Amino acid sequence: AYAAHDAPKEIDIHECIEAALRVAGHELKYRVRIEQEFGLVPRLEAYPGLLIQVFLNLFVNAAQAIEGEGVLRIRTRPHAGGAVVEVSDTGRGIAPEHLPKIFRPFFTTKPPGVGLGLGLSICQRIIDRHGGRLEVSSSLGHGTRFRISLPREVQAQRHALDARHPLDARTVGHDGTRGRPNPWVNETSPTVGMVS
User: Fold this and answer.
1) For residue 123, which of 69, 71, 76, 85 has the smallest C-alpha distance?
2) Backbone φ, ψ for residue 72 (5° rounding)
């Protein structure tokens, strides 16, 4: 088992994905078909517990976005010495006016009482902690795709910053409009973006 406070270690990204799928099973079974396309990606230095948290959040969000039956697709491939993980679903999609806001803390399109609107903000912060990039594209009525790019090794500068300012739910990350910068992250860091 992995804990969120683990030190960075060499991991198999596919093991983190499989661990998150096991935890999310109750949300997915019976109505969401899982399609996996795993590439030959290298082992990465990462915080495994935190990556499992990211994948779990994306899988549960996908399940909640799918009305009735649908598909969750997970693809991995090598990229620039690291890896890319794409998580897409056939759910209801995200309205264009909401896309720039989805990484803001406490923003949610879910009904009252379903989530706090912190999940994607925390996911973004975790990926930034790795020196990676989290991108999203969506088509209303046709589904959503998240793309996570991770470097081969955790960037030393970001690791040092997080050692002084540890991750927690109060952290404010960049959003798509750059309206609320995180004081511990370089403002020019291209962490969150839109992908077409």
Assistant:
1) 85
2) -110, 120
